[in-house]
Amino acid sequence: MNAPDHNPSNNETTPTSGGGRLANFIDEVVEQDLSSHKHGGKIVTRFPPEPNGYLHIGHAKSICLNFGTALKHHGVCHLRMDDTNPTKEEQHYIDMIQRDVRWLGFDWSEHEYHASDYFDALYDWATKLIEAGRAYVCDLPPEEVSKSRGTLTTPGRESPFRGRTAQENLDLFTRMRNGEFPDGSRTLRAKIDMAAPNLNLRDPVMYRILHAKHPRTGDKWAIYPMYDWAHGQSDWIEGVTHSICTLEFEDHKPLYEWYIDQLQAIGVQPQRAISKAGPYRPRQYEFARLNLTYTVMSKRKLLELVRDKHVHGWDDPRMPTISGMRRRGYPPSAIRGFCDGIGVARRENTLDISRLQFHVREELNKTAPRRMAVLDPLRVVITNYPEGQTDELDAVNNPENPAAGSRKVPFARELFIEREDFMEDPPRKFFRLAPGREVRLRYAYFITCQEVVKDASGGIQQLNCTYDPATRGGDAPDGRKVKATLHWVSAEHALDAEVRLYDHLFTKEDPEDQPEGKTYLDVLNPDSLKVVTHAKTEPSAANTSVGEVLQFERLGYFALDPDSDTAAKKPVFNRTVTLKDTWAKVQAKAGD
RNA sequence: UGGGGAUUGGUGUAAUGGUAGCACGACUGACUCUGGAUCAGUUAGUAUAGGUUCGAAUCCUAUAUCCCCAGCCA
């Protein structure tokens, strides 16, 4: 995780600080506040998800930013559920959000909060604003509120209920709370300015009537606060110093300020974590959300993909969700490395998905045990190898990490190699097996292709090869070289496995950029999942635990899926990411 | 035709009036029992037009383009 090793006095040459995390404009603000001793030198941030869906990689950016900023400057970061809309929120989502934040490697310790913890305080303060003449109960139905708000270019009209007395407002508001009125019949509105050019200031709704059961407060409330009324006050109550959100909330900042101004004007000042540093108020800062190529990132769209079964759930390995990536085999450190490496700024950005894959490979290359597996088996018979004989060869578990040791791999007369590792009539740059050509079988022997056996329709059925016993282990004593090394498994010892190969969920870099009448659903990739039902793995692949990621040599990284039947030795592997494939590039170039 | 933001190589991100840098990608080459990894190198950028200044990505003026806002969502 990000080590808080920032040293402001002598880092003039480095653009990064704090465990490789890029310094950003928020760090600058924080450092200024720290040096001016604002907030008594305390830093408090918060990650405020709404529990109406699963966390995705965009949230990971926010999590790394909020927790990372706190960590780096010796502050704390709260986890706060923004649970003000019980019609969309569920306990299940709360649980999954907590699991995902923990899995990512962040710890909020005792700082777990909910906006709903503050419903009483919020209600109390709302009555104070009513008494101060800054809020009123409005009887306009939703359509009328919408109509009277005006448009982007024309001012709104004042509600006919704007002039009610405080007494009347208090009475109505109490009855709203008591559940006397049906949903949608009334709202509590802030009295600001119906002609404000910023639409958020045109008498925004503070409370709406919702006869809904809340995951935490149950049936206690018939009214629920809106985001603007709940969020800033929650920050304030918790002593949050730097309230970091995304760009679309920029227009809400004047309202965020207005509420706190009004409350301060009537003498409200919550108990808070900040110690005797003078009057304190939180400040909002906005950054640009993360976009990724070949995917969508809005919870609404992700929910739609799940609900309409375009994917197999929130944790489908094709989803950009944290849980999908976990299942796919992305290590949390890779996701953190990605988030820390992309920087934080205020301009719109779209990161190439390959950038995330870079971090995944970087991490897995260092940590994933190597195994051999063949996805598309082609039978090879070593004609000069004795029938019935078996040999055990030493194979290195991870060339990047000698401490990972080695294992034994069985070798026999009949083997499988990858079908695409043989070509009968190879082009110039194809180094692998071909008639008459000698290659190395990884950790085993040099073999030479002597004969191609075909079936009736001309398909290649089997290769008859000879091996050189002197090359046992993979080295030729006479020093002769070979251009290629192939992975292989022994046919009789191989384990059957299901392997799921994933590709982009969408065929377009920007799935949302569609012509009139089309949507992102029209560019779903029909080949985003390919299932190989009878892949062959070396026997030791059976000793893999769910979630563990292996490198199948020359193929890529593969994570053992929870669908695996480990008792029946029927593993299911998700391809996390391929290895970088220079040959594929050569082929693509030759192709056109 | 309202308000708020943004614009630096293909993609991200630095440079806060003083040498436009870093990462990813792409391309070379070296090395290699993974066409992986590693190592070395190359490539390519300040939206446009004026102005201020010894000096401008940075300051000023205009223009262009893109994003956000009219939920009783967050």
Counting DSSP H or I runs of 4 or more residues, the number of helices is: 13
Any guess at the CATH architecture of the largest domain? 3-Layer(aba) Sandwich
Oligomer: single chain
* CATH fold-level topology of the largest domain: Rossmann fold
Classified in CATH, the superfamily of the largest domain is HUPs
The count of β-strands is 27
Low-confidence stretches: 1-19
Strand line-up across the major sheet = 12-25-26-27-23-24-13
Helix content: 25-40%
- Outline: elongated
Gyration radius over CA = 31 Å
CATH top-level class of the largest domain: Alpha Beta
In whole angstroms, how far apart are the ends? 44 Å
Quickly count the domains.
Answer: 4
Structural class: alpha/beta
Largest sheet: 7 strands, mixed
Mean pLDDT: 94
Estimated share of beta-strand residues:
15-25%
Question: What does this molecule look like?
Answer:
There is one protein chain. The strands form seven sheets. This protein has a seven-stranded mixed beta sheet with strand order 12-25-26-27-23-24-13. A seven-stranded mixed beta sheet has the order 21-18-19-20-14-17-22, with no helix packed on it. Strands 4-5-6-7 form a four-stranded antiparallel beta sheet. It is elongated, with a radius of gyration of 31 Å. It has helices spanning 25-35, 57-72, 91-104, 119-131, 142-148, 166-177, 227-238, 253-265, 299-307, 322-328, 332-341, 353-367, 582-591; strands at residues 44-47, 76-81, 112-114, 135-138, 187-190, 205-209, 223-225, 242-246, 283-287, 290-292, 349-351, 370-371, 373-374, 377-382, 391-396, 406-411, 414-418, 438-441, 446-454, 460-468, 485-486, 488-490, 495-502, 529-537, 549-552, 556-560, 572-578. The chain has four domains: 8-112 and 229-291 and 333-349, 3-Layer(aba) Sandwich (Rossmann fold); 119-226, Alpha-Beta Complex (Glutamyl-tRNA Synthetase, domain 3); 292-332 and 350-367 and 499-592, Ribosomal Protein L25, Chain P (Beta Barrel), CATH 2.40.240; 373-494, Ribosomal Protein L25, Chain P, CATH 2.40.240.10. The protein contains 13 helices and 27 strands. It is of the alpha/beta class. α2 (57-72) crosses α11, α7 packs across α8 (253-265) and α11 crosses α12 (353-367). A hairpin with a 5-residue loop joins β19 (446-454) and β20 (460-468). The model is unreliable at 1-19 (pLDDT under 50). It binds one RNA strand of 74 nucleotides through α5, β6, α7, β11 and α12.
